From TrEMBL, chain A:
<keyword id="KW-0132">Cell division</keyword>
<dbReference type="GO" id="GO:0051301">
    <property type="term" value="P:cell division"/>
</dbReference>
<keyword id="KW-0131">Cell cycle</keyword>
<protein>
    <submittedName>
        <fullName>Cell division protein FtsL</fullName>
    </submittedName>
</protein>
<keyword id="KW-0175">Coiled coil</keyword>
<feature type="region of interest" description="Disordered">
    <location>
        <begin position="88"/>
        <end position="116"/>
    </location>
</feature>
<feature type="coiled-coil region">
    <location>
        <begin position="27"/>
        <end position="54"/>
    </location>
</feature>
UniProtKB/TrEMBL annotation, chain B:
<dbReference type="GO" id="GO:0071555">
    <property type="term" value="P:cell wall organization"/>
</dbReference>
<dbReference type="InterPro" id="IPR005311">
    <property type="entry name" value="PBP_dimer"/>
</dbReference>
<dbReference type="InterPro" id="IPR036138">
    <property type="entry name" value="PBP_dimer_sf"/>
</dbReference>
<protein>
    <submittedName>
        <fullName>Penicillin-binding protein 2</fullName>
    </submittedName>
</protein>
<keyword id="KW-0645">Protease</keyword>
<feature type="domain" description="Penicillin-binding protein transpeptidase">
    <location>
        <begin position="262"/>
        <end position="567"/>
    </location>
</feature>
<dbReference type="Pfam" id="PF00905">
    <property type="entry name" value="Transpeptidase"/>
</dbReference>
<dbReference type="InterPro" id="IPR001460">
    <property type="entry name" value="PCN-bd_Tpept"/>
</dbReference>
<feature type="domain" description="Penicillin-binding protein dimerisation">
    <location>
        <begin position="87"/>
        <end position="223"/>
    </location>
</feature>
């Protein structure tokens, strides 16, 4: 009985040693991966900062104003003026066109469609 | 140590006398000695066991506590471990109230040299001078071939320049990472932002320090890592600020003025939406301050905050509002306006003769100096002083800019009767346009004090009440009449009910006295008059306009039309809708849009049935 116990103990110790060895390397691999991801995050952060700065630079009011002037023929944009905004209640919407009978059954989202 | 003998002679002799066996004594002593030795050994073994046990407990305890701590903390991104991330997040961004970037950082590189490591100093100097036209090849060569071990060549450079330097292939030229402050919008809001420069410099990084404006006032906050890179959100609105600068610049050109200031401020919160001072500068390339001459000639001078101007007739509303509050007068009280008026040896004139009497409202509407002085005399010097002090005209504004303390108003030290009289119509006391904005905001805020701020959405304590609500409303009503039928007719903007007061003040000569042909004209306004939301101040420095009636410098002809143009442009931008008499028909919808779900709309799952 005693030799069997010794053998079992030895096997157990070897098994545990193997497990610990693998865990150790897995941890080191995970740490390496983490620092890689961190470097990547730092790089992306830096890129994000550059992109934000570029976005702000490209959208600076002076440039937009120049672009509006350059493209006045096509866009005809002028500064917003008073009275260009009004309440929805003051707007007369045209009545939607009467639905075609055969389309009506499919377009159940159309408000004017007859109820089934 | 005293060793007890195994066979003590006295006891052995005594035992022999008694006929006992002396060996028993020896055996007994030997037993005792062995017991003592055993006890000692056991104690030592026990001590060792206890030590081992405590070491194991300590070791396992450490492991256990660490595991517990790791398991219970939230996973965070350990940013400080990565070098470049640390540099990027060194200084927080500054954004406008809608989160648009006003100041941010870019990672760039600096160039330095180790001349002793150089292979070809002559070629390096020549190539560097080719890449950077501002460097001198001869001077570089002298430095490279001299005894220096280290020298900076460029503080910051573009990636293209860096590549070009890299292509020289000189091992003695080295790059260090640098964080660079960038203001993508150029000159917009330049005075508010201020600018930045490098502080302590090392090879690997350099401190970025604010040198003026908000950048300097919030230097500690912006560099505090505890804020986790959160941006500083200003109350400025980029599009409003940009539009104001544009309209103000064209107004300044039309009125051939030397400088101009515009301030737009929310009344209720005291948040400054736009504050422009022209001429301005580009904070990316901040000019050097003037070392001699008048500092206000430099574009760095912020007229809105640092300028100390006698703001002229715009002050008249303050004694009138105070008199209304004290119930000395009502808007219809008759005020003696016989001109000229004498105080001691001084004479006070009106712009033109308004007859012997005007109502209090008309004193403001026609801007009568004499009438205002009479009202101020009714109030008395002490009360007048106390009121101006409460409005904040005696102290620098607590605005979040490093320049604020330099804008401390110039207040006369003594207040004889004539000073009190001139201060009542805005001469003799010089304050910044921002002071005026804060005081007008206080009047328009129903008499509750407004403190201007540049920071968006900060909760601040309610200001103290300075005027009764009724007096404040009457004062705003008077200001409205200035625009409808008084000196500022040109400031009217249909629908926005502009209420305001013009002020034309002669500029003081540095040598004393006043210039005849140089004025500072100001228009201080509040709109819309029925429910004041915004205060706007426009100040033009030395304007002059030639109209059909000849050259004019009065604020009604210079500052008021510029203010009207600015309000016309800015009010839609801040989302203020005009009040119109036009009655638009309300049209009933011709059909009911079916947005909510109707019976029969829901998804049917027929498989389950």
């Amino acid at each position: 009985m005693r030799p069997l116990t010794y053998l079992a103990c030895a096997l157990l110790v070897m098994g545990l040693a193997f497990w610990a060895y693998r865990e150790n390397y897995r941890t080191q691999a995970a740490l390496g991966e983490m620092s890689q991801v961190q470097r990547e995050i730092a790089q992306l952060r830096e890129d994000l900062g550059v992109l934000r700065a570029e976005w702000a630079y490209l959208n600076r009011p002076d440039r937009l104003r120049e672009l509006v002037d350059l493209n006045f023929d096509r866009l005809q944009l002028i500064p917003r003026e008073a009275g260009q905004v009004m309440d929805l209640g003051h707007i007369d919407y045209p009545k939607p066109p009467a639905p075609q009978p055969e389309v009506a059954s499919e377009s159940s989202g159309n408000p004017a469609a007859p109820q089934e | 140590m005293i060793r007890i003998p195994l066979r003590p002679l006295a006891r052995i002799l005594r035992a022999r006398e008694r006929g006992e066996n002396p060996d028993a004594i020896e055996a007994e002593n030997r037993r005792l000695r062995h017991e003592a030795i055993q006890d000692k050994a056991r104690r030592r073994a026990e001590g060792r066991l206890a030590l081992m046990a405590s070491l194991f407990v300590l070791g396992f305890g450490t492991v256990g506590v660490r595991m517990g701590a790791l398991a219970s903390t939230d996973p965070i991104e350990p940013r400080s471990e990565v070098m470049s991330a640390q540099i990027v997040s060194q200084r927080a961004d500054i954004t406008d109230r809608q989160g648009r970037v006003l100041a941010t950082n870019l990672l760039t590189h600096s160039l330095y040299a180790h001349p002793h490591q150089m292979v070809d100093p002559v070629g390096a100097a020549r190539n560097l001078a080719r890449i950077f036209p501002d460097l001198d090849a001869d001077k570089l060569l002298r430095d490279f071939t001299g005894s220096r071990k280290f020298m900076w060549i460029k503080r910051k450079m573009s990636p293209e320049q860096m590549q070009a330097v890299h292509d020289i292939g000189e091992p003695g030229l080295l790059f260090g990472p640098r964080e660079m402050r960038v203001y993508p919008n150029g000159h917009i809001a330049s005075h508010i932002l201020g600018g930045s420069g490098f502080g302590n410099e090392g090879v690997d990084s350099a401190e970025v320090l604010g040198v003026a404006g908000v950048e300097k006032a919030f230097d500690g906050w912006l560099r505090d890592p505890a804020n986790d890179g959160a941006p500083l959100q200003l109350s400025i609105d980029l599009s409003v600020q940009s539009a104001m600068e544009q309209v103000l610049a064209s107004g300044m050109e039309v009125m051939s003025a030397k400088g101009a200031t515009g301030i737009l401020m929310e009344i209720e919160s005291g948040e400054i939406l736009a504050m422009a001072s022209l001429p301005d500068f580009d904070p990316n390339d901040r000019p050097r301050p003037l070392l001699k001459g008048d500092p206000s000639d430099s574009p760095l001078f912020n007229r809105a905050v640092q300028g100390q101007y006698e703001l002229g007739s715009t002050f008249k509303i303050f004694p009138v509002a105070q008199a209304l509050d004290l119930q000395i007068i009502n808007p219809n009280s008759g005020i003696n306006t016989t001109t000229p008026m004498r105080i001691g040896k001084y004479r006070i004139n009106d712009f033109s003769n308004y007859g012997p009497q005007l109502s209090a409202t008309d004193v403001i509407v026609k801007s009568s100096n004499v009438g205002t002085v009479r009202i101020a005399q009714m109030i008395g010097v002490e009360r007048q002083k106390a009121f101006l002090q409460k409005l904040g005209f005696f102290d620098p504004l607590p605005i979040e800019m490093v320049e604020a303390p330099t804008g401390k108003p110039l207040v006369p030290t003594r207040w004889p009767a004539v000073t009190a009289a001139t201060v009542s119509f805005g001469h003799g006391l010089a304050a910044s346009p921002l002071h005026l904005a804060a005081a007008y905001a206080t009047v328009a805020n129903g008499g509750v004090k407004v403190t201007p701020t540049l920071i968006h959405g900060r909760t601040r304590p309610q200001g103290e009440r300075i005027l009764s609500e009724r007096a404040a409303a009457r004062a705003v009503d008077m200001l409205r009449q200035v625009v409808t039928r008084g000196t500022a007719k040109q400031a009217e903007v249909e629908g926005y009910e502009v209420a305001g007061k013009t002020g034309t003040a002669d500029k003081p000569r540095p040598s004393g006295g006043y210039y005849d042909n140089k004025v500072v004209s100001t228009f201080a306004s509040v709109f819309p008059a029925s429910a004041p939301k915004y205060v706007m101040i426009v100040t033009l420095d030395e304007p002059s306009v030639t109209g059909p009636g000849g050259e004019s410098r009065t604020a009604g002809a210079t500052a008021a039309p510029v203010a009207s143009a600015i309000i016309r442009r800015l009010a839609p931008l801040v989302g203020l809708e005009p009040v119109t008499d036009e009655n638009l028909p309300v049209i009933a919808p011709r059909f009911a849009p079916r947005v909510e779900s109707q019976p029969g709309d829901e998804l049917k799952v027929s498989a389950n049935q």
